[in-house]
Design goal:
Helix content is 48%, strand content 11%. By secondary structure, the protein is α/β, with parallel strands linked by helices. It has three domains: 54 residues; 163 residues, Rossmann fold (3-Layer(aba) Sandwich), CATH 3.40.50.1980; 113 residues, Nitrogenase molybdenum iron protein domain (Rossmann fold, 3-Layer(aba) Sandwich), CATH 3.40.50.
């Protein structure tokens, strides 16, 4: 039996109490309803924001070299965030390892490399340390852009006497703009394999890139005509594809073999050969010392030209297109000063 202060309640008393409590109960009910409405609205907003963030989350791509980063960014467009491990002024065959590389590779959804063992001294160990199975060689997240390339200067044996940096052939095909075409196509195919839902975007961006590249190649071939037949040497054997594309004559390298420093007898022979054939241009890559190139140029009455081999290798070279154009124009200026430029 209901009681108030220990005494039995009549029906009338209970009715009066219920009537008195109704305004308070309605107020409490309204407050709870308002709180639930606000809470549900807040939670819905959180869910929608989370969904938008997930939808807008970009594909994270890591590349070994900056040329690959520039081209991958063009193919991926707004869908991707791209970072290069190497900087343009570094030796791509032996990039200094930084602690930040491992966590970047651990987060990478795709790793893009030049291939042909270009990065064999540093990339494989980093991938192992990253513990990211997606980007292990052979898996879909590992994109090797050399797959469409026919390599030049493939060694017949792998003894150290033949050089230790080009075991699968010359990997510097990025310096030929036609190599840039193959790089872009391979990146587009690799991204499509990993993210098929974005195929249309990748294909459209590739089409734009190739149209721009085709126009550039036509201009570069005209611009580079005075370089036809110009004889030169470089420190490392990295301008083979460039020389073949633009008709230059590669006389030799300061290195005895790729990755092997010169002997005194090699330098004497090299300079004698330069004098014999009339080679006046000495190319120096940013990561090599200027001492020996300057000595050789002085001996043969030539000129040293510092040329980047990657995007970022010179302050003016911010894109892949910049790289090719800059190298052509710098060589033209040097050839004209040295008196070896041909006539258009």
């Amino acid at each position: 039996m209901d009681r108030v202060l220990g005494k039995p309640q009549s029906r009338l008393q209970r009715a009066r109490i219920d009537f008195a409590l109704q305004p308070m109960m309605r107020k409490e009910h309204d407050m709870i309803s308002q709180w639930l409405s606000r809470f549900c609205g807040l939670m819905l907003g959180v869910v929608l924001l989370a969904g938008e963030a997930h939808a807008e989350e970009k594909i994270y791509i890591v590349t070994s070299l900056p040329d690959l980063a520039d081209i991958a960014a063009r193919i991926g467009g707004d869908l991707v965030t791209v970072e290069s491990l190497a900087k343009g002024i570094e030796d791509p065959h032996g990039v200094p390892i930084k602690p930040s590389f491992v966590p970047k590779l651990n987060r990478a959804q795709v790793l893009i490399v030049m291939g042909l063992e270009y990065e064999h001294s540093w990339i494989p160990a980093l991938v192992t340390e990253s513990r990211n199975s997606k980007i292990v060689k052979g898996n879909s997240g590992y994109i090797d852009v050399s797959l469409k390339v026919t390599p030049k200067e493939v060694p017949t044996d792998l003894s150290r006497a033949k050089g230790e940096l080009h075991p699968a052939g010359n990997p510097h095909f990025n310096l030929d703009p036609e190599g840039g075409r193959l790089i872009a196509q391979t990146i587009a195919e690799g991204l499509t394999l990993n993210f098929p839902q974005h195929r249309a975007t990748f294909e459209a961006n590739l089409k734009v890139f190739l149209a721009q590249l085709n126009a550039k190649i036509r201009d570069w071939e005209i611009l580079a005509r005075p370089l036809h037949g110009v004889k030169f040497i470089s420190y490392h054997q990295d301008f083979t594809y460039f020389a073949d594309r633009f008709g230059m004559d590669y006389v030799g390298t300061i290195e005895l073999k790729p990755g092997i420093e010169p002997t005194a007898s090699h330098l004497v022979e090299l300079m004698q050969n330069m004098k014999t054939v009339g080679a006046k241009i000495v190319l120096r890559e940013p990561h090599f010392s200027e001492k020996v190139p300057n000595q050789i140029a002085a001996q043969v009455g030539g000129l040293v030209v510092k040329l980047p081999i990657m995007v970022g290798g010179s302050p003016e070279v911010k894109t892949y297109f910049d790289l090719i154009e800059y190298n052509i124009r710098e060589l033209l200026k040097a050839a004209q000063v040295a008196g070896v430029a041909g006539k258009v």
